[in-house]
């Protein structure tokens, strides 16, 4: 099989989280001269597969084979790779079966490498991500097999293929606020404590406010209100409490401590409860590290484009990899149709991604 044939095969394999659609077993067979380790947890399938060519560094390619549900109103069957006008349509075309196909073919065709090449694959990235990549990394650490560098093939490009790599990601802090009042009759507001009135006096100073100034790589951490609800859906009773949810995509300058202080500053003296959770933490890979320089060189060689270094977007499994002290970057096709109806990517991008990864392997020690 070539890269495009492999890509189509993956799309045709329905793999909604946490189902892998049989793809991981296929890859085990496809890379028959690699050593495979399965780290399956409950209904999640995980595969680490590697080949030691010689003494030297360990370069890993990581990704997920699971996809989000297709939804309705597709023009084509979302689980059949349809080629049309230079594009290939199907769920996962961009996110991220194109990336998995490209690096699987690149390592299969690698003839020589001074160290170890590996793939880390999971069927639990689009879901809770609790039994996926993190479990494989824990296994690798326990067995002293962690890679030196890692490329996650998430779709990263914005306008043209090759224009962006991710050298880090913001974290995500979720906030659950309960502002307590005292229920009463709307005709006697002086006898009640209306939490809607209380929040209205400060909301303009909270919603959409930057908690820091950001830096060269990170946008400011912004306080984003996502939900407010209160009351009994009647006009003559003021509510007993108000609930508000918010999210802060935080950079390295803002932590839960600063978020708590920000809320306290604006709600000081009021009766409230605040619960914060954090599903991911911010990280940034030093742009002077080998993996950044080598992927930049490989991309420019293939595309004649020098990529920008970005930390924008949501979260990915790179956050787990970085937490283990591994130099990690992300690079893949354009991301303009991810999770959408009629998800697609161009044949040229998929082939180009394979070319970049093959080039990266070839120049890793040169």
In words, what does this structure look like?
The chain is α+β, with helices and mostly antiparallel strands and 366 residues long. It has two domains: 3-169 and 282-363, Zn peptidases (Aminopeptidase, 3-Layer(aba) Sandwich), CATH 3.40.630; 172-280, Alpha-Beta Plaits (2-Layer Sandwich), CATH 3.30.70. The chain contains nine helices and 19 strands. The strands form six sheets. The protein has a six-stranded mixed beta sheet, with helices on both faces. A hairpin with a 7-residue loop joins β1 and β2. The longest helix is centred in the last third of the chain and has 17 residues, at 347-363. The two termini are 29 Å apart.
Strand content: 15-25%
Q: What is the top-level CATH class of the largest domain? A: Alpha Beta
Residue share in helices? 25-40%
SSE arrangement, N to C: HHEEEEEHEHEEEEEHEEEHEEHEHEEH
CATH superfamily of the largest domain: Zn peptidases
Second rung of CATH, namely the architecture of the largest domain? 3-Layer(aba) Sandwich
Task: Give the helix/strand class.
Answer: alpha+beta
Count of helical regions: 9
Q: What's the β-strand tally?
A: 19
CATH topology of the largest domain: the name is Aminopeptidase
Tell me about the largest β-sheet: 6 strands, mixed
Mean pLDDT reading: 97
Number of domains: 2
Question: Separation of termini?
Answer: 29 Å
Uncertain segments = none
Read across the widest sheet, the strand sequence of neighbours is: 1-2-6-3-7-18
Radius of gyration: 24 Å
The outline comes out as: elongated
């Amino acid at each position: 099989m070539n890269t495009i044939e492999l890509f189509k095969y993956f799309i045709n394999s329905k793999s909604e989280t946490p189902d892998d659609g049989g793809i991981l077993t296929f890859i085990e067979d496809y890379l028959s001269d690699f050593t495979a380790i399965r780290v399956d947890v409950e209904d999640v399938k995980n595969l680490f597969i590697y080949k030691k060519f010689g003494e030297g560094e360990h370069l890993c390619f990581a990704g997920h084979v699971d996809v989000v549900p297709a939804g309705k109103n597709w023009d084509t069957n979302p689980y059949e790779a349809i080629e049309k006008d230079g594009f290939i349509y199907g769920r996962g075309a961009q996110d991220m079966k194109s990336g998995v196909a490209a690096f699987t073919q690149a390592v299969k065709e690698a003839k020589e490498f001074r160290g170890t090449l590996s793939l880390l694959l999971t069927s639990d990235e689009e879901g809770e991500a609790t039994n996926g990549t993190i479990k494989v990394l824990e296994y690798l650490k326990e067995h002293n097999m962690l890679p030196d560098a890692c490329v996650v093939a998430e779709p990263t490009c914005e306008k043209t293929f090759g224009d962006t790599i991710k050298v880090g990601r913001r974290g995500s802090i979720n906030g659950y606020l309960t502002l307590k009042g005292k229920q009463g009759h709307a005709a006697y507001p002086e006898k009640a404590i209306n939490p809607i009135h209380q929040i209205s006096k400060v909301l303009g100073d909270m919603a959409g406010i930057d908690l820091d100034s950001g830096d060269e790589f990170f946008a400011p951490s912004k306080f984003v209100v996502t939900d407010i609800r209160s009351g009994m859906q009647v006009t003559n009773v003021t509510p007993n409490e108000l609930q508000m949810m918010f999210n802060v995509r935080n950079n390295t300058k803002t932590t839960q401590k600063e978020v708590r202080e920000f809320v306290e500053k604006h709600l000081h003296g009021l009766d409230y409860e605040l619960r914060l959770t954090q599903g991911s933490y911010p990280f940034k890979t030093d742009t002077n590290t080998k993996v950044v320089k080598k992927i930049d060189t490989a991309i420019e060689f293939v595309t004649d484009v020098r990529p920008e270094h970005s930390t924008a977007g949501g979260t990915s499994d790179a956050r787990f990899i970085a937490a283990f002290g591994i130099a990690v970057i992300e690079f893949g096709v354009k991301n303009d149709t991810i999770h959408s109806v009629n998800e697609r990517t161009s044949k040229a991008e998929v082939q180009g991604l394979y070319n970049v990864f093959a080039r990266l392997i070839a120049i890793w020690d040169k």
